[in-house]
Fold this sequence. Notes:
By secondary structure, this protein is of the alpha/beta class. 28% of the residues lie in helices and 30% in strands. The chain has helices at residues 42-53, 55-60, 73-83, 96-100, 142-149, and strands at 12-14, 20-22, 30-35, 63-69, 88-91, 104-109, 112-117, 120-124, 130-135. The strands form three sheets. The chain has a five-stranded mixed sheet. Strands 1-2 form a two-stranded antiparallel ribbon. Strands 6-7 form a two-stranded antiparallel ribbon. It is globular, with a radius of gyration of 14 Å. The chain starts with 11 loop residues before the first strand and ends with a helix. The mean pLDDT is 96.
Amino acid sequence: MLQEGTKAPAFSLPDQNGELHTLEEYRGKKVILYFYPKDSTAGCTKQACGFAERYPQFLEKGAVVLGVSKDSVKSHKNFETKYELPFTLLSDPELSAIQAYDVWKEKKNYGKVSMGVVRTTYLIDEEGVIVKAMDKVKAADNPQQMLEALE
């Protein structure tokens, strides 16, 4: 996980509509950049719906929400549509941002070891500096924690 106080790595990734997004285009806004393992799984759906539910409050506080996983653009589109997600989902199948933000880790699941995305959320300030970093977050609690971090 990257440390608070460090400059957030630049990225250029397609969203659920295939449009490219860069960190630079959000300069001047707070960015909640959350990395999650997989579209439409129980925990990831809870987390995404929690962000969706609170989305107007994030906007009021001048923050945008960006979700990132290694799922495809098409998978993101299906996820967005099914749960009516109002924010941007970024597709990173090449793991460029996932590795740059140090969230690709060894995971143990039922004794089986594999590589995967560790659920991690960063709050990036208007200047592109990480001001809050949380790893191994609880999916259901994370959206409220991030809203409070904006206070």
